[in-house]
Write a structure and sequence with these properties.
Elements (H helix, E strand, L loop, with lengths): L2 H16 L2 H9 L4 H10 L5 H12 L3 H25 L4 H4 L2
Helix pairs in contact: 4-5
């Protein structure tokens, strides 16, 4: 069960050792296509706070337990996300290339 994760991790580490950040960034940034641009512009909003609150409220009508699980998961991941952002404080790509 852990083997596929280790293979992907090893592959990422090899790429990181062979190429610099700028090359990796521009390579990944070049892998877009027009339909994906429209889809992911919309799909990005699925992770926003209003969407999570709306889904939690809708789920409340079907299952209190699952609604609580969704809300607590959202709060937990938000806290971990903010903690990691302050721990690493890595600038956005626009700041990196200035």
């Amino acid at each position: 069960m852990l083997f596929p994760f280790l293979v992907v991790l090893a592959g990422c580490l090899i790429v990181k050792l062979l190429f610099d950040k700028e090359s990796i960034y521009f390579f990944l940034n070049g892998l877009h296509f027009p339909a994906g641009d429209h889809f992911f512009a919309w799909f990005t909003d699925v992770g926003n706070t209003p969407t999570a609150i709306a889904l939690t409220i809708i789920l409340l009508f079907f299952s209190y337990r699952m609604s609580f699980v969704l809300a607590s998961t959202y709060v937990f991941t938000t806290l971990v996300n903010f903690g990691l952002k302050f721990l690493f404080s890595f600038p956005r790509p626009t700041k990196y290339f200035e």
